[in-house]
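re: that chain from earlier
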Amino acid sequence: MVDIKSFGEGSDLQLVHGYGDGGFRVSGTRHSGSLFLLPRLTTIWTPPTDLDDLTADDLMPLLGDPAAPLLVLGAGEAPQHPFTELGAALRAHGVAFELLSTPAACRTWNVLMSEGRAAAAALVAI
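^ sequence. v structure.
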């Protein structure tokens, strides 16, 4: 498991402290499998077997109410294509979309949280 420097204790923000071995360590708790994160909520997430089948309709119910204005997708080791249709569909719902590898998405998530940004992250386990 790769460790990520934490930003300190005493917060209920869902910070990613480690990833790998098929899961994540978020705010001190080990989770197996993929996760969906909101600033103060971690949910087990089961993405489609073929990530190309992921749609905005799959993600919108997870984004909260009102929906988080930014979704970071950690698509495994390296994204295989730009998910153009998914990004366009999310933007149509007012949600900006950022596609990264899972390691980069974990680091980006922690920076977003340290800046107090409203966001969501869908992280595929590696």
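Residues 21 and 113 are 24 Å apart (CA to CA).
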